[in-house]
Please model this.
Amino acid sequence: MDPARKKLLATADALAPDARRMLAAVTAFAELGLREARTSETLSAFLEARGFRVVRGVAGMPTAFRAEFRFGRGRPRVALLCEMDALPGIGHACGHNIGGVASACAAAALASFGAGRLRSGSVVALGTPAEEMGYGKARMVQEGVFRGIDAAMMVHASSRRHVAKGYLALHKIRFTYRGKASHAAAYPEHGINALDGVLLLFHGIAALRQHLPDTVKVHGIVTEGGQAPNIVPERAQAYFYVRGEDDAQLFETVPRVKACARAAAKATGCRLEMEEGPYTLSAMRVNPALAASWRRTLSLLGLRESGAPTDRNRGSSDIGNVSRVVPVLQPNVPISAGERVEIHTRAFAEATASPAGVAGMMEGIRGLALTTYDLFSDPSLVREAWKSFRGEGRS
Model:
C-alpha cells in the first residue's frame, strides 16, 4: 500500500472514538423514517465541526441534509450516503446506524486527509431519511439532489461480506374494499362483506403465484378486517408489496395483481379503492467499475469476499432509484462473528452494537475512504464508472 493510502487509513482509524460514540447514540435513538431529528443532527453536526458546509432540510424533508467539503473547483464530486432510520419495535434491525455513521466518518476522513493534498472536486455526505419507507432517496432523486454527482456510495450491514448484491424493484399497493354493514346473524342477506373481498384477493394472488417467475415476489397483510363478528364488515383493507428482478418484470406483474383485486371486488359486490405508494423503487444497477475498485480495496485491507450467492435473500431499497441517475456502489460489511444473523430481526439489531458490529462499521469507514480516494486519484475510474452506467462497451 502506498504512503498516501496508509495516511488516509490512519486518518480514518483516528476517527474510531467518534464513530463508536455516534453509533451508540444513533442506536439508542432508533428513530423512525422522517422523524430522525436527533440522528440527523448528530451526523450533520459532526460533519459541520470538521469544515463541511451543511444544508439541512433538503428536498423538503426536515431530516435530510447535504454536507459538502470542497478541495477545489472541478470534479469529481462523490456522494457518501448516510441512512438514518430504524424499524418500528425492533430498532436498527436493518443496520442503518452502521451505514450512516460509516459514510459520515469516511467523508470526514477524506476531508481531513485531502485538505492540501487534493486540488479539485468535493466529497458530499448526504443524509438520506426514510429508507424503510422507500421514500428518502427516491424523493432526493426526484428533486435533483444527485445532479452533478459523479458517483454515490454507502455500505450496508450484513452477515456476509459482499461487493455487489443488488436489490429487487418494488411497488406498494393498498387495497380498500367497501361493502355494507348489517347484522351477521339476523340480516346477513342485507350486507356486503368487505372482508370477503380481501380474502378473495389473497386467494387470487395465491393462484397467480404459480404463473409468476421465481424472481417475482408478491406478499401482503390484512390491515383491517372488521369490527366485530356479529357485524358484516363494511370496510376491509390489505397492503401488498410487489417485487421483481428488474423494473420491466415489476411493471408486467403489477397489472395482474390489480386484476386479482378487481375480480375479488366484482365477485363480492364491493367497491374497491387502490392507493399506490408515492414511489416505485427501481432494481439496483450494480456498477462494475465501482465494484472492481471495492474489490481492490478489500485486497489492500487483506479481506476476502464471501462466496455466498448474491442473487438470493434480497429485498428492495431506494438506492435503486439513485442507481438510475448516477453510478452507485453499496457493498455489504459483516457485523456478526461468523454466525448468520438475519436482517430485520432483534438479533440483527443487537449485532449492530456488538464488537463485531463496530468492526464492520470500521471496515465500512476504511473501505469507503479508500474507494472514494480512488475516484479522486484516478480520473479514468470516474470515466469507466460512467461508461458502465451507460452500458458502453457491452457486447
